[in-house]
C-alpha cells in the first residue's frame, strides 16, 4: 500500500481522544507515513505545532511534501524510547523546553503497512525478501543474523512469550536444525521451516492465520526490542505531557495492550493514605485519568482496512 492511499487506523477516535486545541502542541511518536499526523495538522491553526518521530529513516524521507514544508511541523528520526530527550531538545515559543508542555501524544504501535508491503524490509512472510525485520535498518542486528546466534532455549522462550506460539518448542527445534545446514536468509525460508514444523490442524477447518504469523511477530518484537521501547516511552510520557494533555495508544496484539492497560491503570490509581496521614502527598497522587474503555474498530472500518481488525485504542489524560 503506498503512502498516497495509506489509511490511518482508528482515525476518528484518535482525533477525538487527543481533544485537539487549534494552538496546541502534538507529538506523533510513531509517524509512519504520516496518516494520523496529516489529519492532526488539519485541526491546528497557525500557532499550532506538530512533532513527528520515527526510527525508520524511510518514514522521514517519504513524508508528504505538505508535511515536510509546513512550518508548524518538525520531523525527527529517533526512537520513541528517547521521547523525553527528543522533546526536551525542542523549544517552545518562549525558548523554554517543551517538557511538560505537550498537549497530546500518539503511539501507533507495531509494524506499519508500508514496512509490511516492502519485501526488502523482511517483515512479511507473504513476500519473499531478505530476512531483516529491523525498523531502523541502520542499527542493530537483522533477524537473519539474530537467528544464527540465538540458542534453542532462548528462541523457544521468545516464540512463546512474544508470539504466544503453542508450538514454540517444535518450531525452535526445526529452526536450529535448519540453520545447522545453512543460514536462514530469506523470509520464504523461515516461513517454510515453520510451516513444516507446525502439525496440520485436525478436522476440516483451515486455520485463519498462516502458521508463521506468530513466529514472525515474535522475532520482530525481539529484534526491535519493541516491548522495552514501549515501556520506556510510556514512563516518559508522564513528564512530556502538560496537565490536561492526552495520551493515545493504539496496540495490535495482547502483549502491547496489556502493557498499556497496566500502565494507565497503575498511573490512575489513588493510593490509600498512610495511617495518621491527613492527605495523600502530591508525589503519590495519580498521574493519569482514564478516558473511557478500550476502543476497537467498527465493522465498517475493518471491511475497508483489514489492519484495523485487531487494533485497540486506549486514552488517558495527564492530571
Task: Describe what is shown at a glance.
This protein has 319 residues and is of the alpha/beta class. The chain has 14 helices and eight strands. The longest helix is centred in the C-terminal third of the chain and has 15 residues, at 226-240.
Record the SSE blueprint.
Layout: H1 11-18, E1 25-28, H2 35-42, E2 49-54, H3 57-61, H4 65-68, E3 73-77, H5 83-89, E4 102-108, H6 113-117, H7 143-149, H8 152-163, H9 168-179, H10 187-197, H11 213-224, H12 226-240, E5 241-251, H13 254-268, E6 288-290, E7 295-296, H14 299-304, E8 312-318
Parallel strand pairs: 1-2, 1-4, 2-3, 4-5
Antiparallel strand pairs: 5-8, 6-8, 7-8
Helix pairs in contact: 5-12, 8-9, 8-11, 9-10, 12-13
What does this molecule look like?
This protein has 319 residues and is an alpha/beta fold. It has helices at 11-18, 35-42, 57-61, 65-68, 83-89, 113-117, 143-149, 152-163, 168-179, 187-197, 213-224, 226-240, 254-268, 299-304, and strands spanning 25-28, 49-54, 73-77, 102-108, 241-251, 288-290, 295-296, 312-318. Strands 1, 2, 3, 4, 5, 6, 7 and 8 form an eight-stranded mixed sheet that branches. Strand 1, helix 2 (35-42) and strand 2 (49-54) form a beta-alpha-beta unit. Helix 8 crosses helix 9 (168-179), helix 9 (168-179) packs across helix 10 and helix 12 (226-240) packs parallel to helix 13 (254-268). The model has no long low-confidence stretch (mean pLDDT 92).
Mean pLDDT figure: 92
Largest sheet: 8 strands, mixed
SSE succession: HEHEHHEHEHHHHHHHEHEEHE
> Would you identify the CATH H-level superfamily of the largest domain?
Vaccinia Virus protein VP39
Q: What portion of residues is helical? A: 25-40%
Task: Just name the CATH architecture of the largest domain.
Answer: 3-Layer(aba) Sandwich
Total strands: 8
Shape: globular
Please report which band the strand proportion falls in: under 5%, 5-15%, 15-25%, 25-35%, 35-45% or over 45%: 5-15%
Judged by helices, strands and strand pairing, the structural class is: alpha/beta
Number of domains: 2
The CATH topology of the largest domain turns out to be Rossmann fold
Oligomer: single chain
Radius of gyration, CA atoms, in whole angstroms: 21 Å
Number of helices: 14
Low-confidence stretches: none
Name of the level-1 CATH class of the largest domain: Alpha Beta
Distance between the termini: 39 Å
Amino acid at each position: 500500500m503506498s503512502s498516497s492511499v495509506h489509511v490511518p487506523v482508528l482515525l476518528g477516535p484518535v482525533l477525538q481522544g487527543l481533544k485537539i486545541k487549534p494552538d496546541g502542541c502534538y507529538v506523533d511518536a510513531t509517524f509512519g507515513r504520516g496518516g494520523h499526523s496529516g489529519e492532526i495538522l488539519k485541526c491546528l491553526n497557525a500557532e499550532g505545532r506538530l512533532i513527528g518521530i520515527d526510527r525508520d529513516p524511510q518514514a522521514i524521507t517519504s513524508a508528504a511534501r505538505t508535511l515536510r514544508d509546513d512550518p508548524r511541523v518538525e520531523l525527527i528520526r529517533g526512537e520513541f524510547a528517547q521521547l523525553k530527550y527528543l522533546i526536551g531538545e525542542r523549544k517552545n515559543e518562549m525558548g523554554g523546553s517543551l517538557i511538560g508542555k505537550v498537549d497530546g501524544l500518539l503511539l501507533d504501535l507495531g509494524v506499519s503497512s508500508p514496512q509490511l508491503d516492502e519485501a526488502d524490509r523482511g517483515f512479511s512472510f507473504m513476500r519473499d525478501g531478505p530476512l531483516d525485520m529491523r525498523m531502523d535498518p541502520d542499527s542493530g542486528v537483522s533477524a537473519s543474523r539474530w537467528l544464527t546466534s540465538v540458542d534453542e532455549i532462548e528462541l523457544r522462550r521468545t516464540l512463546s512469550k512474544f508470539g504466544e506460539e503453542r508450538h514454540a518448542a517444535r518450531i525452535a527445534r526445526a529452526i536450529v536444525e535448519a540453520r545447522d545446514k545453512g543460514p536462514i536468509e530469506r523470509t520464504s525460508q523461515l516461513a517454510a521451516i515453520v510451516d513444516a514444523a507446525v502439525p496440520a490442524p485436525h478436522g476440516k477447518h483451515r486455520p485463519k492465520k498462516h502458521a508463521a504469523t506468530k513466529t514472525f511477530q515474535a522475532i520482530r518484537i525481539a529484534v526491535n526490542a519493541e516491548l522495552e521501547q514501549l515501556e520506556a516511552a510510556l514512563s516518559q510520557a508522564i513528564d512530556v505531557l502538560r496537565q490536561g494533555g492526552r495520551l493515545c495508544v493504539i496496540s495490535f496484539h495482547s502483549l502491547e495492550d496489556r502493557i498499556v492497560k497496566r500502565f494507565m491503570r497503575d498511573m490512575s490509581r489513588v493510593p490509600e493514605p498512610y495511617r495518621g496521614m491527613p492527605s495523600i502527598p502530591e508525589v503519590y497522587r495519580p498521574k493519569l485519568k482514564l478516558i473511557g474503555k478500550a476502543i476497537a474498530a467498527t465493522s465498517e472500518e475493518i471491511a475497508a482496512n483489514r489492519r484495523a481488525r485487531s487494533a485497540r485504542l486506549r486514552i488517558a489524560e495527564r492530571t
